[in-house]
Design goal:
three-stranded antiparallel beta sheet; 219 residues; 26% strand; alpha+beta; 13 strands; four-stranded antiparallel beta sheet; single chain
Length: 219
């Protein structure tokens, strides 16, 4: 038994706001700018402890109804990647969503109970995303401030040069090249950076826009 996505609409349509995805702070930072570049207005509500809810009812603004597919599939948030798995971040109890038709079809087998290894085998990619959520909430978000560097350029070699320069001087923990907005890059750094160094690195004609954002650790 292995989970299979049926490309239904149930995980991307929210009858109520409370059903919409919960995001990590760095995902909000990235999606806010990505949405702006795509001409999509997004609203997020803070839930505390570095967690935010995408405030939406109806279809997700990133969902392509005609194609029945996510327009930002390669960079969608972890809560979307881990679906139909759900996790209680207080107790770390893992459950599944009955909104998913595959879960409903296999409910009898699943109700017999799965251990951690079996869950990972059935929901391999989804379980990896769940583990990353827990790691961010309990470890990464609580240590050192983070620095987010965003920039746009149509010169891929230049982008690679910038990312390499940042990696040589700072601890880069995430690099994202947008799959939907040409030339948009996001670099997440563990710790503080020298604003003058970053400014000097990015202030050039071939880079059309850039921004540096500092985010404190979650207490």
């Amino acid at each position: 038994m292995k989970f299979a996505c049926y490309r239904c609409v149930h995980c991307c349509f929210f009858a109520e706001e409370r059903e919409s995805p919960v995001l990590l702070w760095h995902e909000v930072a990235y999606l806010s700018k990505l949405g702006e570049l795509m001409g999509i207005s997004l609203c997020f509500k803070s839930l505390g402890q570095g967690l935010y809810r995408l405030s939406v009812t109806g279809f997700c603004p990133f969902y392509d109804i005609r194609r029945r597919a996510c327009r930002i599939h390669r960079e969608k948030p972890l809560s979307c990647r881990m679906f139909p798995l759900l996790v209680n971040l207080s107790s770390l109890e893992v459950s599944t969503s009955l909104l998913c038709p595959w879960i409903y079809e296999n409910l009898k087998k699943l109700s017999e109970g799965l251990n951690g290894k079996e869950i990972e085998e059935v929901f391999y990619g989804e379980f990896k995303a769940l583990e990353e959520v827990v790691r961010w909430v309990y470890t990464v978000s609580r240590t050192t401030p983070k620095s987010a560097v965003y920039f746009t350029t149509y010169y891929k070699e230049l982008a690679e040069e910038v990312i390499k320069s940042l990696s040589e001087r700072y601890k880069v923990i995430r690099v994202t090249e947008s799959s939907v907005v040409d030339g948009f890059y996001y670099v997440l750094i563990d710790g503080e950076v020298d604003p003058e160094h970053v400014d000097a690195l990015l202030r050039r004609d071939e880079i059309t826009w850039y921004k540096l954002e500092k985010i404190p650790p979650i207490s």
